[in-house]
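User: My advisor asked me to double-check a structure prediction for Protein DETOXIFICATION before group meeting. I don't want to rely on an old file, so could you generate it fresh from this sequence?
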Amino acid sequence: MCNSIAVATLSVAEKQADSLLKTAIAVQPICSLPKKTTLHSPNPSPPQAIDEKYGGHCYTPPSLADFITEAKALFSLAFPIALTALILYSRSILSMLFLGHLGDLELAAGSLAIAFANITGYSVLSGLSLGMDPLCSQAFGAKQPKLLSLTLHRSVIFLLFCCIPISFLWINVAQILQFLRQDPQIAGLARTYLLCSLPELLTNSFIHPIRIYLRSQGITRPLTLSSFSAAILHLPLNFLLVNRLKFGVAGVAAASAASNFIFLLSLVSYVWAYGLHEPTWTKPNLTDCFSGWKPLVRLAGPSCVSVCLEWWWYEIMIVLCGLLSSPQATVASMGILIQTTSLIYVFPSSLSFAVSTRVGNELGAGRPNGAKLSAGVAVLIASVMGLTASTFASGMRWRWGRMFTADAEILRLTSAALPILGLCELGNCPQTVGCGVLRGSARPASAANVNLGAFYLVGLPVAVGLAFWAGVGFCGLWIGLLSAQICCAGLMLYVVGNTDWCFQARRAQSLTCAGGGTVVAADYEDDGQPLMTQQRV
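Assistant: Sure, here is a fresh prediction for Protein DETOXIFICATION from the sequence you gave:
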């Protein structure tokens, strides 16, 4: 069943692209790509041969030592990423606590504003920034470090441009929410919150690309330390703006924006002070920064779609809860469960970022064996993560909800859905890591197709059918999510398991190919045109 769905979700364009590139590779040496545009390197690196030990015809299973070494490499990347995510998660929880302290109206308005910001702003910027992930990780693996800074410059400019339409949406959010029949008072306060959050859009346009730029080089400590410094100041900033200066909802938003700016300032200062940028840095050039955007945009688009499709699903779940009987209890319970799954998600998402970096580095270096090993080890670790999360959710079903509320109806709904949430994690952890593998091998369109098919063509109909037509109610929504996660995990593992790693290594070398004093970067996509062409730096 999964096999047939997987074939259906893969686009005809991608099949044509793969066929075209295979033909091109078969008839010419890997570094004899079409001379679209060249980049002259003063110190050219020799062409890297494709190592086929684990990825080609002479496949040999990796040894236990190889497995352990790769697991250590993944954990060394994933652990600080997870720690950073937990620190940032604590900031959002603290903001919600201050909103709740202000009153029910402020909490409702702030929650609505945050949901609107997530849907229209933060998820979009986060997804678009992931377009630079394969470009940076593969360039670093191919020993073309200057391409990293050029991609960083372009990504920052690209995200800043994307902030313009998002800002217009936020400025007019009151009219939009009232059109959607929201309470005018809540809509007005939500607008106040979002107006004070506009600076956070700008800082995120720098933070997201810098994080990927550093992570693709295996640099994670600055992110953890900078996020920690911002989190320490988040509490006094909220206390000053909300409790002392009585700025209310605006104070909570301003404190969040200020702490985000502190995060950015600390991050840039650390990188600059320790010279972490020097091996890969290129002075920004207007000609280069405003040209050659096609590869970034073509990878950013499906990356954004993939992230948003999954992110928006949970917002849809909250809306559907409001249509059930006892909407106050179901919405509150859904809020608790989404906070829970967001906390659990920190760990597989961190592993996903780690494996994306490892796969990209190995493919860029011409080592399909390493990429295949990294993908396999990461999926195995993710499966253990899913089993652990499922056990935790089932074991805490009667106690977890009491940490948030004493309402009997909310506790009943939460305890009933927690085991289903645990089963969802059995699929969510592997599929999240699988998405990272596809991202590291520059295949975000495949991940977007899988998420679209699993969440919206399978999960959503099942959720609506069970919750409303079959009368299952609240748990029916979570069974719908479970069906989506099972399908998504199966499709992701199918795509990853059927990957031709030697072919992906050739694609990566066509993205950043070094040889004969000339660097040519080209990756054939659906229209047969080179994905990436570079100008002189």
